[in-house]
Write a structure and sequence with these properties.
Helices cover about 5% and strands about 50% of the residues. The chain is mostly beta strands and about 500 residues long. It folds into two domains: about 325 residues, Tachylectin-2, Chain A (5 Propeller); about 150 residues, Jelly Rolls (Sandwich).
Length: about 500
């Protein structure tokens, strides 16, 4: 398929190609997807097309700051190694001149079909300001894409009463039976976030069905980036609320990402909410999206950054990375997240310690590095605090600390080299589990990748993500306790 002519697209692709060639590989994460050049935020269009995984993303290739949104593009065969492709879309039409915002993708009748939010943001001749969001479509062959001639496919005249045309975005598309369905974020007349459900039999004509769920004044305001999928015996509505207030350790102030568990009646499109939990308890996580893999797994990826804490070094010409894709499973009424199993193919140089007793600060031979998979299982708890210091030397450190009395886990980047006043510390509850041998165990798995860490508690019961820009020479790992701890440790280098 030929790409529609667009001077804006051509210019952006030229900038992108040049920028990629100038960024040394060692300045990027080793196995997390990062921006090709310039700015990256929300993952978009996470999909399977012609037996390959495609991921698009919100993108401004002209600087490492947010700007008018394009769609960046990459693909992978195994969800670990990603190949950059030329960016897919630029804001070059009247209905998307203010930006090509977040959306999704699906394979349909041999074509790769993208759904995205087009933004109109302009002043008219009479001086009035026009701002609205509409849902648009583009089709392509996995490399080049053409926008649909009759865009937008869903506009303000297809909203429920009170629905905002200014906050109507982030379409997620899927197919069930003979119909296509689309969920989009919206704001109602009360200013609360809600998720709207639409149906189509041809991808072009869409019928509004229902409001799947709404904030009800409890879970923030605008609900961005909805996803709606079955998992085990539940239906999951995943959204990213803005302007939330903290609630214990479960939710934090600002932009969150939440799982809403429920039952879904497909005969009348009724979703009944049962409970709500955070997706990620760390410092940097937003706008996740899922895909069903070719072998039936539900896999999620998110933007590993917070809107309120831009940490990119000014001299870097890229900004933004994604989490490692995570497999989702429902166990004992909770969603567990695990690094995709494909990562195991890239683990090398195993170092292991069994029933290692420590008191005070301890360094273990062979346990260090900044591109590693580190698993620590605590099996005895004769202490108040147990701490793992990583990405550390005499000047810098990242800190993961377990408070056994309060059953609380803290991630802390205060001393990672920051010079800005951003959130540096976040906590979550952390209870040991009873192992098959009837012993209490607290399991911590840390995935380090140069400038980030993802911490998986108890085989994925909860996750914490954080970005840091500590110099690479700080590669130490130190275990520290104010009492006595017994632990099993396994470390791999990740070689991609």
């Amino acid at each position: 398929m030929e790409q529609m002519e667009s001077s804006q697209l051509d210019m952006a692709r030229k900038i992108e190609k040049k920028g990629i060639s100038e960024i040394p590989a060692e300045s990027r994460p080793a196995y997390h997807l990062s921006s090709p050049v310039g700015w990256m935020n929300d993952p978009n269009g996470f999909s399977v097309y012609r037996d390959e995984y495609h991921l698009f993303f919100q993108y401004h290739p002209f600087s490492n700051q947010w700007g008018p949104m394009h769609w960046g593009h990459c693909k992978s065969r195994d969800l670990i190694r990603w190949e950059y492709l030329p960016l897919a879309m630029a804001p070059d039409e009247p209905y998307d001149g203010g930006g090509c915002y977040s959306g999704s993708a699906i394979e349909a009748e041999g074509e790769h079909v993208l759904f995205y939010t087009g933004v109109t943001d302009r002043y008219l001749e009479d001086g009035t300001h026009e701002y609205c969001q509409v849902q648009c479509m583009a089709k392509g062959d996995g490399l080049n894409y053409s926008k649909y001639r009759d865009n937008p496919v869903i506009a303000g005249d297809n909203l429920p009463e009170g629905g905002s045309v200014k906050d109507f975005r982030d379409p997620k598309i899927w197919k069930e039976g003979e119909y296509y369905y689309l969920a989009a974020g919206n704001r109602n007349a009360d200013g609360d976030g809600q998720v709207l459900l639409y149906r189509s039999d041809d991808l072009e004509q869409w019928v509004f069905l229902t409001v799947l769920d709404q904030s009800r004044g409890e879970y923030g305001k605008m609900w961005e980036c909805p996803d709606f999928f079955p998992l085990g015996d539940r239906q999951i509505l995943m959204v990213s609320p803005q302007d939330m207030r903290a609630k214990g350790y479960e939710f934090h102030n600002g932009n969150n990402a939440i799982f809403i568990y429920g039952q879904y009646d497909r005969s009348d499109y009724e979703f009944e909410r049962e409970k709500v939990t955070s997706v990620d308890y760390g410092l940097d996580f937003y706008a996740p999206q899922t895909v069903q893999t070719t072998d039936g797994r539900r896999v999620m990826i998110g933007w590993m950054q917070s809107w309120d804490a831009k940490l990119t070094n000014d001299f870097w010409n890229w900004s933004g990375m994604m989490t490692l894709p995570r497999e989702l499973t429902l166990k004992e009424g909770r969603i567990y997240q695990s690094p995709v199993r494909e990562l195991e193919r890239y683990r090398k140089n195993r170092v292991e310690y069994t029933r290692k007793r420590i008191s005070g600060k301890t360094v273990l031979s062979g346990i260090s590095g900044r591109v590693i998979d580190l698993k620590v299982d605590l099996t005895e708890f004769a202490f108040h605090y147990f701490t793992i210091r990583f990405a550390c030397n005499e000047e810098y450190e990242m800190l993961l600390q377990y408070n056994h009395l309060r059953k609380c886990l803290t991630i802390d980047r205060t001393h990672s080299g920051l010079v800005r006043d951003v959130v540096c510390r976040r906590k979550m509850t952390a209870e040991p589990f009873v192992s098959e041998t009837q012993k209490e165990v607290l399991s911590l798995r840390l995935l380090l990748d140069r400038y980030s860490v993802e911490v998986f508690l108890n085989e994925g019961e909860k996750v914490m993500s954080a970005v840091f820009h500590t110099p690479m020479e700080a590669d130490g790992v130190i275990f520290d306790t104010d009492g006595t701890a017994c632990m099993n440790v396994v470390k791999y280098d990740i070689c991609v």
